[in-house]
Amino acid sequence: MFGLFKKKKTPPTFAPLYTDMHCHLLPLVDDGSKSLEESLDVMEVMKEVGFEEIRLTPHYQYPRFPNKEDDIEERYKNFCEEVERNKGERSLPLLKGVTGEYRIDDGFHEHIERGRLLTYRFADPKRGSAKGLLLMELSLHQPVMGFEEVIFERQMEGYDIILAHPERYPYFNVHSDRLEQMKEQGVYFQANILSLDGFYGEEARKKAFDYIENGWIEFLGTDMHNVMYAQALRHAAGNRKIQQLLEKEEFENKNLVSKD
């Protein structure tokens, strides 16, 4: 369908990560993939650049994407079956579960009340909180009042928190006291791989590298949405600075499994 993916040699730069733990390839549930065929083509590129597994993280964002966990799990099951039936000769990463990227917004309390938050856990059962690791995001424009309290309350309920792409929030600077406070209270951070290659602009690129230098980033994710992102991921795979980073830094991606 998307001829731009016809064979082109790309280095498997992201093989040390093994797992992509943040992507939007469940079709037609958010602003990610729009079809099964698009997801298949994008997954083929992800395998090419080194990912052996992917874990899907559809948006839970009110009112734009009012997804519910039971429906997402059913869609994921059907998607896995469709991928298996239609992949043909493609070499693809394994689909290893569905969780979610939860926006702290006016609808988040409904997910809490339903008690169906979809989370990761560490593969080592001796690590992490009983309810698993919850991937959360903030507004990309301005901070929501009281978001620190929302995160802290989830921790008190027994969740570990992963904050998605802190480098993309314009209200946090390179030496953010608010981010430092979250690190002190045990919040994990996940940076976007494409931020490291300038996909979101120079400010996000600089902050992503600086946060890694600070020792703040435990996870890297593609935040993959569509074929344009896949093209950008191919470009990032050839970035020597990213290659050197992955040669010297250890990230937690490969230590995650989906929580049943």
Could you provide a short overview of the structure?
With 260 residues, the chain is of the alpha/beta class. The protein has 9 helices and 11 strands.
Describe the fold and architecture.
The chain is an alpha/beta fold and 260 residues long. It has one domain: Alpha-Beta Barrel (TIM Barrel), CATH 3.20.20.140. 35% of the residues lie in helices and 17% in strands. It contains nine helices and eleven strands. It has helices at 36-48, 69-86, 108-114, 147-156, 177-184, 193-196, 202-213, 227-237, 240-248; strands at 19-23, 53-56, 59-60, 94-98, 101-103, 120-122, 133-137, 160-164, 188-192, 219-221, 256-258. The chain has a six-stranded parallel beta sheet. β1 (19-23), α1 (36-48) and β2 form a beta-alpha-beta unit. The protein is globular.
